[in-house]
Amino acid sequence: MEILFLSHRFPYPPTRGDKIRSFNMVKHLHEAGHKVTVASLARSAEEAESCEGIKDFCDDFVLCTVDNRVQAMRMGLRLLTSEPSSMGFFYSSKLQKEVHRLLAEKNFDLIVVFSSTAAQYVSHVSHIPKFLDFCDMDSQKWLAYAKFKPWPISMGYHLEGTKLERQERALCDQFDICTCATDFEVDTLVGYNTGVASGFFPNGVDFDFFTPGEGDYDRRSISFVGRMDYYPNEECVLSFCKTVFPALQEKYPDVTFTVIGAAPPANIMALNDLPGVTVTGTVDDIRTYVRKTAVMVTPLEIARGTQNKILEGMAMGVPIISSRTAARGVDAIASEHILTATSPDEYVTHISKIFDDEAERDRLAKTGRDRVTTHHNWPRAMALFVKAIDQGMEIFHKKNR
């Protein structure tokens, strides 16, 4: 098939959660013998240059570079309209023209859209089967943000979440099938009662790359991985350092906490002043750091979809202690493959158990890796992706007989 693949962020290089998923979708379609044209955005000349590597995984690509200052203006202009500001941030008139050109020049058999904010580029198309992978239901994330922000900022987040939810409902009527990354995201989608065909296919992890370390680890060490300019990561790290880490230091004076991730803001960098805490900023290879730690924590209280950091940690054989909110996006059983906590005391209890009981750490390391290799491998996920495409194609052709 000739396929147009649209995404809100360019799917290469696959260095963050959403780009890992979209890249694997593109890669799989290309390897299956389809002619794939990728169309998306870059936000700087440097990013545009790094995107060139996609050419080995598709047949053609269109990349439009946007200026974040202009995109911020687009967001602002939508504040007084019924449209979500997020749509403005990911809209480019240049990309829209390129999409029109591609649709005129090529006979596409299928359009695959990754993320609701990229759907606006093909909202007018009705003569080609259309597949939308929401990945996460972004509206619910914005509504969750509102609960953590002070007034009047909270009002702005709530307004955006409400607009996005309305937009998500409308998009269901424009696509033949819609998917998400987890079953609980699909529950939100089904709850809209639009009647659209829906399903989910999970994220995978490259367990040949994320392998257990062969050297020793520090038995009193904790790690966290994630981009630190992302509010849910920022919020949970600050909270962990305030409510959990001091209690651990009382029990284990030599305990350390390493925060691994790009773009830490000033308040996160300031954590370097706390005894035992290290904020690394950007690193060449997170595996070097994570493998040396006794446990990885993912204490996010705002989390939608799948936290790839959990999958990667499990694949590396590092026990995971997670909030229930973050863990629900992973196909794992609490206490068997992963530990979950709902309070600072529970985090302290679970971490202490791993520090003090090497056999328990070894058990979680093995069961965690075994679980992701069977339930979060990309071939399994992509088989479900293809099944959903086939279902959407069948629905389209039935409607247009």
UniProtKB/TrEMBL annotation:
| Keyword Transferase appears in the UniProt entry | yes
**Keywords, alphabetical:** Transferase
Q: Does the keyword Cell membrane apply?
A: no
Citing just one GO molecular function, the answer is: glycosyltransferase activity
Q: Which PANTHER family match?
A: SULFOQUINOVOSYL TRANSFERASE SQD2
Name of protein: FIG137776: Glycosyltransferase
Taxonomic lineage from the root? unclassified sequences, metagenomes, ecological metagenomes
